[in-house]
Amino acid sequence: MIGASGNTARTGATRMGLDIPLLTAGSAAFSISTMFSSMKPVLITRFVEQTGYSPGMAGLAAAMPFVGGAFSSLLMPWLLRRIGGSAAVTGLGAGLALCEAANAFWFASPALLLLGQCAAGLCGGLLLGLVSGWIASSARSEQSFGIVDMAGVLMMSFMIAVVGSAVEWGGLRGGFLAASVLSAVFAATMHLSRHALPKSFEQADGENAAPLEIRWRGIAVIAMGVAFVTFSGMGFAFMVTAARKLGFSYEGASSAIGVILLLSATGCLAGGWCAARFGPKYPLLAAFALCAIGWHLALHTQSRVVFLMTLGPAIFALQFCFPVLVALPGSFDAKGRLAAIAAPLICSGFAWAAILAGAVVGRWGLTALPIVTDIGMLLCAALLFAGTSKPRLAKA
């Protein structure tokens, strides 16, 4: 049950337009998602070097947390009806930390590694979906998504440096142990916030929710989110490999990319503000174009300086779009349930990005990635027009 003090704090924060406990839990949940992204480019390269995995197998291993996140969307409706949110955050957070610790000791076994990575992603996806549903049904959801996404990206700039240093020091085992410690910290943060959060979506609304109906426009915007993260994340999956080809060390590449991620965090707030001010369509179209141009230049240059300068706009576009993509499904369901299902699905795009990028690089090489990204951005634009072709439902 939610205590009186928790209700008071929640109400007071909502009157100011910001729900501090919700933003705290959301920042931790989004940081868990970006932790998987932080690990991916480093692990893909290290898997090939340390274990002899092919680029395709390395991409699959790094992608499995996002596959697990996609599976979490199938469990989300049951979780919302039977368990709710605050009752689940502690167990899921602890499970995530244990999965990452286990991965540190069985990474040499492909079957066990894939299973452990998928289980970690399942826990993380459920946490992300629960919190995203709460945010989508709250006031000023676009700005709130921008804030928690920015917090996750700011943590990402730190985590990619931590994971890179851990891999430099202890190989794959060091990287997974670092992830386990980070997961425990984020789980503790969500645990401390749980008493001020709603126990379930029905309790948050004060009434039983009507059955969720998913119409084709909602499907289109979710598909657009998955497609954008997939195609924009292809270059992200191999950016450490690209940096290594230009002569960067693991630690040097991780530190430089971490700085770029830190600066690109402003894109999260900018995306949330632009969506609230101008609507989602035209800001997203501009970001799609910026993403395509940035990755094309970054992955074709032979200059370290040009690589870092063009990597910035490409990553900024991803950060700009993400809070808009997560918030947009919430406009089709005022209860936030569609956003809860959509958030881990959209994040699963990082899995398909790693798998697709591994296949493309293995077949045609690194310079083929921007071509596939360009095609993907055109697909995203088509889905965007399909999903926003009529006025969206206003929140109740």
Topology:
Elements (H helix, E strand, L loop, with lengths): L3 H12 L4 H32 L3 H28 L6 H18 L3 H27 L4 H53 L7 H5 L10 H22 L1 H7 L4 H15 L1 H13 L2 H18 L5 H24 L9 H11 L1 H16 L4 H19 L9
Helix pairs in contact: 2-3, 2-5, 2-6, 3-5, 3-14, 3-15, 4-5, 4-6, 5-14, 6-10, 6-11, 6-13, 8-13, 8-14, 8-15, 8-16, 10-13, 11-12, 11-13, 12-13, 12-16
Q: How is this structure best described in words?
A:
The chain has helices at residues 4-15, 20-51, 55-82, 89-106, 110-136, 141-193, 201-205, 216-237, 239-245, 250-264, 266-278, 281-298, 304-327, 337-347, 349-364, 369-387. It is mainly alpha-helical. It is globular and about 50 Å long. The relative contact order is 0.16.
